[in-house]
């Protein structure tokens, strides 16, 4: 398996690169990884505090996930949904078993896709079709209420309701049918809901926005608004779900049961893209044969890995670990906040958003600069929206390793 450094040339992105410039990565070329640690092509080791935006919640190359993938690679990798395979129904049963009890309604279905954006698109399509066929919304008039600062993916429809100019500008004409309200304001949701509304689509915690946690009464109040109006609550848990916040779904934290949930990222165990919509059977039933699909959705390799992911989450120990290690992380970050080394800190489970302090002597001028300093100190993290850095270590991270990274963070905040 191991190929040497630069076996394929390794031209860095930039001058002479054949890559489209839609990313600005930190200057590190990763060669191998195990658990929470990655090694670059020069043999330097780094602790991974990004975890591929929570796609690596179980760490790199978790043995159970790699074993499941290897076993499936030797049997069957793709059938398309034109034919059935042995793991499709077991995967759906297992995921419905894990997540269904956390949702509204009594009976639940799973619709497997690949990427997160596809799961969101699927939830939008299901909500609209349900709105026309069940709620009786006039043809082509359906609206979905969304929140400012959202991140739901990169497709043309999804960026149509982004409020991030970089994500949106230049990609019109935009898909109509979305009404944007401030995040964290349930009264604004109530005012936006009318006879054309089919769903309210929200992230229970806005990850991309910098781990923004809403007020405690927000999601329960939105749930009540949805119940009173008879519209769907769709929770995008692609980043917040599957253990990150200390529970299987972030919605559990507020005892809120969404009608549909989108999952992705960690569902593929850091091995293959696996996403899904899990939700009320009476809603997902509107997607009859021919109305929606995906060539790769629910493929055997994806189901093998997805099943192993569900197995890892079923005992609840990783979720508990995210809570306890997360409390430790929050405690240490609060010290940095109290010392004035950070401007803001938001934590939930094993997930944190840090805002760099402007004008701090020797401090980083931006989130990017902090990440560059961390990189030089053997810690991988990624900035978002200028001044913010998100920390999302694998849920399996060892506490001494995390402490080491936080020591490096402390130094990086004051030492160029
Ligand atoms: C990452 C993410 C997506 C998009 O997932 P992709 O796999 O990149 O398409 C959608 N919603 C949320 C909340 C995400 O964090």
Automatic annotation (TrEMBL):
Its EC number is 2.6.1.13. CDD domains: OAT_like (cd00610). The keyword DNA repair does not apply. This is ornithine aminotransferase. It comes from Cellulomonas shaoxiangyii. Its cofactor is pyridoxal 5'-phosphate. Belongs to the class-III pyridoxal-phosphate-dependent aminotransferase family. Pfam families: Aminotran_3. It is an enzyme of class 2 (transferase). The keyword Transferase applies.
